[in-house]
Structures are given as C-alpha cells and as structure tokens.
Amino acid sequence: MSEASRALAVIIPTLNAEAGLAATLSALPFTAQRIVVDGGSGDGTVDVARAAAA
Questions:
Q1: Which of 5, 10, 36, 53 supports an S-S bond with 49, CB 3.0-4.6 Å?
Q2: What's the CA gap between 43 and 15, in Å, rounded?
Q3: Which domain holds residue 47?
Q4: Cα→Cα distances 9→1, 6, 12, 22, 50, Å
C-alpha cells in the first residue's frame, strides 16, 4: 500500500468549542489533513483553529 493511499483526513464540526479544540487537534498528529468546520461560534473557536494551522 502506498503512502498516499494511507493518508487520513479528519473533519471536525465545531460550535463554541474553544475550550477543547486545541486538545482535540493535538490528539490527531497522525492525520494528513484536519478540517475544522465552524458553525458560527461566538467564542474563540476560529482563533484556535487558525493558530493550529499556523
């Protein structure tokens, strides 16, 4: 099996998940791609997601 066929992407739907998002993202180091989909959070969820992408 080639490396490309073993790539794993994870989609994480969020809504006001600032408190736990960083821990969730750091628990997924083996993924090729982490996609955070925010549903209009009023807290710092988007900021946490952006910081993790940097």
A1: 36
A2: 9
A3: 16-30+43-54
A4: 17, 10, 10, 17, 17
d(CA 25, CA 46): 13
Q: Which two tokens stand for residue 38?
A: 């925010």
Summarised one tens digit per residue, pLDDT across range 19-51 is: 999 999 999 999 999 999 999 999 999 999 999
Cβ neighbours around 21 below 10 Å, total: 24
Tens digits of per-residue pLDDT, 2-18? 565 579 999 999 999 99
Alpha carbons within 13 angstroms on the beta-carbon side of residue 54 total 7
The residue with tokens 């997601």 is: 49
